[in-house]
Amino acid sequence: MSSAAEQEAVRKTDPGTTTGTAGAVAEAVAAVAPGPRPPAVWPGAPMPLGARFRTGPDGVAGTNFALWAGGAEAVELCLFEEDGTETRLPLTELTHEVWHGFVPGVRPGRRYGYRVHGRWDPWTGARWNPAKLLLDPYARAVDGEFTLPAEVYGHVRDWPDQRFADTVRDERDSAPYVPKGVVVHDDDDWADDRRPKTPWADSVIYELHVKGFTQRHPGIPEELRGTYAGLAHPAAIGHLKHLGVTAVELLPVHQFAHEDHLLRRGLRNYWGYNSIGYFAPHAGYSASGTTGEQVGEFKRMVRALHDAGIEVILDVVYNHTAEAGELGPMLSLRGIDNRGYYRLQADARRYADYTGCGNTLHVVQPNVLRLITDSLRYWVTEMGVDGFRFDLAAALARSMHDVDMLSPFLAVIAQDPVLRRVKLIAEPWDVGNGGYQVGAFPPLWTEWNDHYRDAVRDFWRGALPDVRDLGYRLTGSSDLYAWGGRRPYASVNFVTAHDGFTLRDLVSYQEKHNEANGEENRDGTSDNRAWNCGAEGETDDADVNALRRRQLRNLLTTLLLSTGVPMLVAGDEMGRTQGGNNNAYCQDNEIGWVDWSLLEQPEWRELAALTARVLALRHRHPVLRRRAFFSGRPQAPDGLRDLAWFTGGGTEMTEADWYAPAATVGLYLSGRDIPGRDARGEQVTDDSFLAVLHAGHEPADFLLPGPPWAQAYELLLDTAREDQAEPPGTVHRGGERLTVPERSVLLLRVRE
């Protein structure tokens, strides 16, 4: 905290410091430059927020503008012509901290922004600067791209004394350098849309990047690649249908900006976790235009996916914005009401940062909570999406400081009649103290389960000290989720995600190789739990490559047979590689894009075929997608236990076995003992299965359990086989000693 003398010294050298009254500011705003008479501004209405084209008084068409700016002294609406000419209109109506007005004649496609007046006193968190054009937080479309020259910063970026640079107001106009909001009118009604409404237990999630998934697809016309229209193309949807996934989870599609440090290195934010417009589809993914056309294109994409039975889940970033910390640009919320939108430290010049991105939205504030929930409802009711995955969700669940599962955000979601009906996925951690909250989110929520990721990776690389954790992970993680009425599908199981190695890189690299990011390989985690199978990176060694492909089959099969909701990452099913880069957030190029030419190679085509085959098996058999946790007890008088574990010797595992190292485990799933009933009230029954997972580097004998478990077993799947076109089909008798190939999964179906 600087001294009062230091603050005063900076104020005296800063010509932008404002200390006038609200009346004086309003008078200055009214003194517009001479020129053509500006349009009339009628009072309009304070709700809804944003720019809404509608019919006003006397049937006059126009647009109602409404902006929450709690501490502001005056607000100007700025309208832009196609040639960039700006018209500034003071909004003089103020209702419950919302500045509003109706402008006759303003139609869809018109670009706009705001200038907000108020005090400049960073020591108290006040950072108003009317020289900076601000994006409407409720803008439904954005035209243009953020390039971050010095003019878009609210402070003098090159102030000689950098200790106080953020306290000196920059008076240069930012309007020529920043994107504008666009007035959008879309009365498309989703009432007739046939949403898939896939139950959680039946869901299979496929995480993809709109551009990365479509940019190199040979079946998509070049002009549609990298766009929403490209993802809606039959060639893209055909692959998803063939695999058997039920939902796509799209990396961020809210309008986002690129960070300055990336632009200076000639890179871009590829993943999009740097949001600045929570209502606007990212314009860079639009093939049809950026003055509102992106909205309709996004909706058509959603409809095409719905018609194919595929749900759309958005990865959303409500924990921070692209404005970063006190040295970041002034793009929207910071200039509207810095103290009203962001969490500040005791030294109000500084931002509380629970995200690692410089700032954290202050979700406890009613206006911030309204912004987020209005945005969520908009994407459901007007854009047609089916759910959300919340990036760093623990940051949203913080009350004043600590993570609180009774926080306003979680409470509002739980009672909202729209949001409580859609799929809600938490990334259950942030980077602040006490931020790791896996297993703690309340009912309605599912969670990314990194315990599953770590246990499965460790088992297949031979690094588990015992098999206790693996047992929980394969059967729905009851130790984490069997409370409060939660079900096994509260666990979103994954081995890889966008953040980290691809599946192929997980078995090809021991260490990260992120040199292309320009950060001297310091970025990205070093805790990868990876095994390169004997060589680092690409190799001509046929044995190493064969082992890697087998490990891929093991990891994919384990994931798809586990209880819970499996999540695949686009391209993992065909051996996509990032060359060992485990943090490709800035690689908007071949490193980050899916390489569809891999499907021309037999070995990778076979991997995709195996993925589709195991998913088809999962969809056919309810015992593989249970809606209740295992009890380890019979569910019927004449039944077996619903779950049993076996050692390699064919005996049931004892307490001591769970605490001992083991490379081989057998998992018996009873289809006769599935709790619950179907939609007609009938008991659900299914085949019974035995899965044998063997991570040892030598073949092992496994004694197949005999009666009462089974008279015989039919071999359905053997990951030791490269060719999975036809099922093995071999029948083995109960009590028979079976040789399990090294590093493999066998799946057997019980035969009477």
UniProtKB/TrEMBL annotation:
<dbReference type="InterPro" id="IPR017853">
    <property type="entry name" value="GH"/>
</dbReference>
<dbReference type="InterPro" id="IPR014756">
    <property type="entry name" value="Ig_E-set"/>
</dbReference>
<dbReference type="InterPro" id="IPR013780">
    <property type="entry name" value="Glyco_hydro_b"/>
</dbReference>
<dbReference type="InterPro" id="IPR013783">
    <property type="entry name" value="Ig-like_fold"/>
</dbReference>
<dbReference type="Pfam" id="PF02922">
    <property type="entry name" value="CBM_48"/>
</dbReference>
<dbReference type="InterPro" id="IPR006047">
    <property type="entry name" value="GH13_cat_dom"/>
</dbReference>
<protein>
    <submittedName>
        <fullName>Glycogen debranching protein GlgX</fullName>
    </submittedName>
</protein>
<comment type="similarity">
    <text>Belongs to the glycosyl hydrolase 13 family.</text>
</comment>
<dbReference type="InterPro" id="IPR004193">
    <property type="entry name" value="Glyco_hydro_13_N"/>
</dbReference>
<feature type="domain" description="Glycosyl hydrolase family 13 catalytic">
    <location>
        <begin position="207"/>
        <end position="618"/>
    </location>
</feature>
<feature type="region of interest" description="Disordered">
    <location>
        <begin position="1"/>
        <end position="20"/>
    </location>
</feature>
<dbReference type="Pfam" id="PF00128">
    <property type="entry name" value="Alpha-amylase"/>
</dbReference>
<dbReference type="InterPro" id="IPR044505">
    <property type="entry name" value="GlgX_Isoamylase_N_E_set"/>
</dbReference>
<keyword id="KW-0378">Hydrolase</keyword>
<keyword id="KW-0326">Glycosidase</keyword>
<dbReference type="InterPro" id="IPR011837">
    <property type="entry name" value="Glycogen_debranch_GlgX"/>
</dbReference>
